[in-house]
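Please, structure for the following, as tokens.
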Amino acid sequence: MKILVAVDGSTYTRHAVNYLREHMEMLGRDAKITLLTVHLPLPPHVARNLGSEAVDSYYRDECEKTLKIARGLLDKAGIGYADAWRVGDPGDVISEFATKGKFDMVVMGSHGRGLFKTLVLGSVATKVLAGCKVPVLLVR
């Protein structure tokens, strides 16, 4: 089973990764896990003024920080994984990555770091549910 775990560094992401760790028997110990984080693009005028090298470095550093907690949790449990990061609209990128990568399931937190944490579902989770052709498991 190929499992894509959408990671944004929030408490809900930690819950999703812990859920995955606790239910690996159900998913199969041979499950292939990929962590994915998606960073929103910088405004064009900012990116232009910083230059491509600085922008690339910024995205890489920020995405590495975001992946760190999920990596640590999986490492501690002895669960292997691959990871990736992209820049773009998180809901769109997660859905497209899951479909093109032929994943069997997407696992993600029900809420993230967005402004509307009090909503029933986060905006990224809602967008992934609406646009993803792969089953999505939301963890609260």
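Residues 36 and 114 are 17 Å apart (CA to CA). The domain at 2-139 is CATH 3.40.50.620 (Rossmann fold).
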